[in-house]
Write a structure and sequence with these properties.
This protein is α+β, with helices and mostly antiparallel strands and 122 residues long. It has one domain. 14% of the residues lie in helices and 21% in strands. The protein contains 2 helices and 6 strands, in the order βββαββαβ. Strands 1, 2, 3 and 6 form a 4-stranded antiparallel beta sheet that branches. It has a two-stranded antiparallel ribbon with strand order 4-5. A hairpin with a 2-residue loop joins β1 and β2. It starts with 37 loop residues before the first strand and ends with a strand.
Length: 122
């Protein structure tokens, strides 16, 4: 946890501190089982295209800092990233793990939004 006073961290159980987020109202999403964070994933938009192609299920893990995907979806996403004209090159390993070898602050404004649509869609 961050110990600086400019970026306070905290853990809360049983409530939400609305001082730590902005935007529209908080929306609760039902999990598909009571013992996991499995949820419906309606679509994933990147560069105005639904790169998911169909509804599926996602498994959320708040302690895992990566996004995993089936290889065909990942390849489509990677191809879009490689086509984006950027001064920073996308580096991909032979195990299909890709990253930019620069600070996120350098590329955040160069990349389109990646939007996840979670929940039932109803």
């Amino acid at each position: 946890m961050d110990s600086s006073s400019s970026k306070p961290s905290q853990i809360r159980f049983g409530e939400v501190n609305t001082n730590f987020f902005t935007g529209t109202a908080l929306h609760w999403i039902d999990t598909l089982t009571s013992n996991s964070w499995k949820i419906n994933l309606e679509q994933v938009d990147f560069k105005t295209a639904n790169i998911l192609g169909k509804r599926t299920v996602a498994l959320m893990n708040p302690s895992f800092p990566f996004i995993a995907a089936p290889i065909d979806h990942f390849t489509a996403f990677k191809n879009i990233l490689q086509q984006i004209n950027s001064i920073y090159s996308l580096v991909c390993t032979n195990m299909d793990f890709c990253f930019y070898k620069t600070s996120c602050d350098n590329i955040i404004d160069l990349l389109p939004d990646l939007s996840f649509y979670l929940g039932s869609g109803n």
